[in-house]
């Protein structure tokens, strides 16, 4: 699965999400930072473009979406949107402003379930990046 961040300070936000995931043992060794292609005037790029996450079968998509929603709720400011996508193009988005506005476990659960449903519609689930 590929995870991209769109919005202000997307590079810093992507690093923040990576750090958040790395604090959880189940994501260690499964998350890789994908670097942006080098600009024509440079030889290499150090800016992160996305995260590539290797998922195992069996409900891991819901766990990942839950982790992303939890991370998005902690983003103090900004219009950051996290896009999760399968190689076939199926995707779901988690908006930090919407996640921050959730009130209670039922609303959080509904957001996670909606994103998981969107991702499960694709044929890319859940045996790869």
Describe this structure in words.
With 129 residues, this protein is α+β, with helices and mostly antiparallel strands. Helix content is 37%, strand content 20%. The protein has four helices and five strands; from the N terminus they run E-H-E-E-H-E-E-H-H. It has a five-stranded antiparallel beta sheet. A hairpin with a 5-residue loop joins strand 4 (81-85) and strand 5. The radius of gyration is 14 Å and the shape is globular.
Per DSSP, what share of the residues sits in E-state strands of 2 or more residues?
Answer: 15-25%
Helix content: 25-40%
Largest sheet: 5 strands, antiparallel
Global morphology: globular
The parts where pLDDT drops under 50 for at least 5 residues are none
Briefly note the structural class of the backbone.
alpha+beta
Order of helices and strands: EHEEHEEHH
Overall residue-averaged pLDDT value: 85
Q: What's the number of extended β-strand segments? A: 5
- Rg over CA atoms, rounded to whole Å, is 14 Å
Oligomer class: single chain
The largest sheet has its strands arranged as: 2-3-1-4-5
Q: Specify the number of helices.
A: 4
| Straight-line N-to-C gap | 4 Å
